[in-house]
Structure formats: C-alpha cells, structure tokens
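Handout, section B. The chain below has 133 residues.
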Amino acid sequence: MQVNWGAAREPGWDVLDLAGAGPSGLAAARRWAEGRLGFLAEPDRVDALIVVGELLENAYVHAPGPAELRLHITQDPCEVTVAVTDVGTGEPRLRVPGHAGGRGLLLVDELAVTWGVSHHDDGKVVWARLDCG
C-alpha cells in the first residue's frame, strides 16, 4: 500500500507542519516524533527515529525542505509508517555510498519492510513502513 498526498486527512495520522521551518526544525521534528513513538520498545523506536531523520534530512538536501512529517501507527499488527512530504520533483534513489553521502536511503531500505515515493501535483511523499513489537 502506497502513501499518497491526501493520506494525512485519513484517520490515524499524526501530522507535523514543517513548511518554512528550515534545517533548524530537524531537531524539533525528531523530538515530536519521539514523543509519538515513546510507547514502542527501544529497538523499534530507534529504528523508526533513524528513518524519520533520514527522510527529513533528504528533504532538506535534495528538495526545498519538508512540508510535513507524518506518522501512522497501528497496533495489530504493530506497524509504523513514516512519511515526509516536500514540494520537490526529484526521485529518491539508492546510491553507492561515497564521501558526499548516499547512505540514508540504504539505511531506510534496510530498516523498513517497504518504502516508496508518491508524486503529486503539489510535490511528493517519501514514505517507509516498519514492523514493530
């Protein structure tokens, strides 16, 4: 199941507006996510926060910055979906790591059950789904 631009209006999504926050908003966004994921077992919480950080950082590096951070958590089965929206048009892709980076999506790919991107008229949503507990 892909995450689309309008998914944030569906029940169960927590949404943090990041439009115009700039890179200084990264720490606040991580704290916001940690507060919502605090009930998870530590290994699952750490994995989800790594994915949050990588997707947000990619939006700052490869797009004009994130517009929203979205989290969706289900209990049975336990799944966490992390989604970052931005107004960029680029296509996220796995790269060979080098001095300039290229490790972020490799981490996401390793930690997530699945991940992807959905393009829309307003930009894109890069999302990842992780199993937990």
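Note. The domain at 5-131 is CATH 3.30.565.10 (Heat Shock Protein 90). Compare this with the example in section A.
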